[in-house]
Amino acid sequence: MFGLWKTWKALEAKGIMGINRRNADYVLKYNKRSLYPIVDDKIITKERAIEAGIQVPEMFGVISTEKEIEKLDDIIGGRTDFVVKPAQGAGGDGILVIADRFEDRFRTVSGKIISHEEIQHQISSILTGLYSLGGHRDRALIEYRVTPDQIFKSISYEGVPDIRIIVLMGYPVMAMLRLPTRQSGGKANLHQGAIGVGVDLATGLTLRGTWLNNIISKHPDTTNAVDGVQLPNWDGFMKLAAGCYELCGLGYIGVDMVLDQDKGPLILELNARPGLNIQIANNCGLTLRTHAVEARLAELAAKGIKETPEERVRFTQELFGHIHQNE
User: Whole-angstrom Cα distance, residue 316 to residue 311?
Assistant: First the structure.
């Protein structure tokens, strides 16, 4: 028992945030329940982002009822690639990525050939709430398929890598690149076997990786190094993430973004309960960083000052960038 207590005190000293602290001190404190639908429903998130002029993958159409499944042909038209996803899904479940057409059938991103009827069946399953949070009836979203920037070709397997930035009251505090693997089925989901790679907030340079809770330096499928990769347009990602506070009103969020080879940085979704594995990938605890932001907020409030997204980004880059400190 004493050994466990000692281990926990060591983690606490390093600023490692546990799930109880995340829920009590951040999720419950900064996230109003009434605002959850904005982030829990991808269609609402997308509509709010479009209104705010924030770049997102284009929405081709929404199917809300069994009857509307008949609209699928009209929605996809002559497109050869698109994505079908549940509006209220979590963890990448229920997402169907179509990469090409094969005669009168479709080819998924993994190369599997499926029929039109199989896509309709998937949409029907989404509508029943099979993949939704809480199992409630859902809507199916048909949208643009992101083509990952070429920089990810050597360090990712099949799917679309994404970038998660945790944001407290508009201040980005920690970032991670999530890389699909063969084990994750091409999905950027850590619980299914994707790799999490820490990212330096100041420079956008990748740090070390974590895979199935082990520290790694190379991608298991491509064998290429995952550290030392310079992510393009990093300041753009940071400003996008910081601006999501004004977009949704939630104070503690995970902002998931992708880098499309043609359209640049795009917001994929927002998460009101971001996971904590990001700390392993960064070899750094969240608590020390969130406390520093809270101290900054108190200091500015006393002076009646509110910072812009650009100023918030500058503050956290100067304070938390690995080039400025030894972590």
Answer: 9
